[in-house]
Amino acid sequence: MERRPRGKRPPEATSAKSLDVVFVHPDLGIGGAERLIVDAAVALQSKGHNVRIVTSHHDPKHCFVETRDGTLDVTVVGDWLPRNIFGKFYALFAYLRMILCAIWLVCFSDFPTDVIICDQVSACIPVLKMCGSNVIFYCHFPDQLLTKRESFLKKIYRAPIDKLEEYTTGMADSILVNSRFTDGIFEKTFQSLKGATRHVLYPSLHCSSFDQFVPSQERHSAIPKSAKHVFLSINRYERKKQVELAVAAFAALQHLVPCDISLHHPDQPATLHLVIAGGYDDRVPENIEYYEALVNLVDSFGLNGHVTFLKSIDNSTKLQLINDCTALLYTPSEEHFGIVPLEAMYLKRPVIAVASGGPLETVVDGETGFLCEPDEMHFAEAMKKFVADRELPRRMGDNGREHVVRNFSFEAFSDQLEKAVVKVVTGVQY
After folding, report:
1. Which residues form the Glycosyltransferase subfamily 4-like N-terminal domain (predicted)?
2. Which of 274, 368, 255 is nearest to 325 (CA)?
3. Are 321 and 234 in contact, with CB atoms under 8 Å apart?
């Protein structure tokens, strides 16, 4: 295939034909960042553009269905390179893997490219820019803020990586951020990029895929038949997701509800249940360790049999669990955006979330759910409201559906993303 010369196109050429867009992403698993990239690729494809994804890892057993059923063209490059050495140097190898993807794309692939969209790791941008590619960087959150520097050696190790992140991010032709919250953090973190123009592009829901979902008449087998009030947590098994808050709040709830509802009533079947589900990768030590810590926490509260753990659920299972729950518990603090609350609200389920970060922009307190301080008693008090008023989940669920359709539709997301892509190709402001 002949490679098309890169650079700016005149606006009339762009409007007359589709663009060739390549996404470069580190690990095409099942996290929120991956969901956004998949949705972005589907959005541009639905607009008539030619779309491909290049990634350093893609496991057909641990991915979104669009990346394995032929909907999207996925190419894996450099998966032979290790992710770490003896559990160390994750950031270094993530950068190397993305740089390798970039080298392959510009030197060895026959993909014609008008725009390359990369996210999470900006280190590949200099390679992409060397051959004149138009590059958009989508910032979920500054990478340097996602890791702790608990030792002097760690600080030394991270210092050049942090500088490289800031420098290479500034080389992008266009920068997108996933929320106003992330935009503010970007401004504070990257001091040299304060003047850089950024656009907020909220993640959205591919609503048509949700509309095709037909819930089973029977609740998911993980939920006991006696349970009348089911609370659900969906997050990766990572410490920063603070899933222990959901467990502690569920334990505290037992002291706030009537005795005949509490799990500790000896003569009544349990009517309360908590389901914890999320991404789990046995290649990641933190996933293994945090899962075990949560299991031990449940045991320490005496909640065995009243809490169910599920790992790496597929999309249909996730939708069924949301359909079956009374309310979603969303526990991360300072979350960059958070797509799961949107999914729950679109399926008419209220959300109890920490009052910080992305949920401040997605959950309407008192209307589509409750925004709480990150402690178990505040969460438990909010959970109690849904136990006490059986109509409250329905009322807030209806409000949530309307809120998502009005503010986070896939159509609006697609239009804004296409405008960003056209702008970087033509130079025409949007």
Report:
1. 30-190
2. 274
3. yes
What local confidence, expressed as pLDDT, does residue 13 receive?
47
CB 118 within 8 A of CB 124: yes
For the chain, give me the number of helices (H) and strands (E)?
15, 13
Dihedral angle of Cα 367, 368, 373, 378, to the nearest 10 degrees = 80
Task: Give the model confidence (pLDDT) of 80-134 as tens digits.
Answer: 998 888 888 888 999 999 999 999 999 999 888 999 999 999 999 999 998 788 9
Helix H, strand E, coil C: the string for 64-88 is CHHHCCCCCEEEECCCCCCCCECCE
Determine which helix (DSSP H) or strand (DSSP E) holds 312, and give its type and residue range: none
How many CB atoms neighbour CB 384 within 10 A?
17
- Token pair for residue 388? 């006490």
CB distance 379 to 251 below 8 Å: no
Report residues of the chain scoring pLDDT below 50.
1-7, 12-13, 15-16, 430
Question: For residue 414, which of 211, 213, 207 has the smallest C-alpha distance?
Answer: 207
Domains of the chain: 11-204+410-426 (3.40.50.2000), 212-407 (3.40.50.2000)
The structure tokens 């929120």 sit at 32
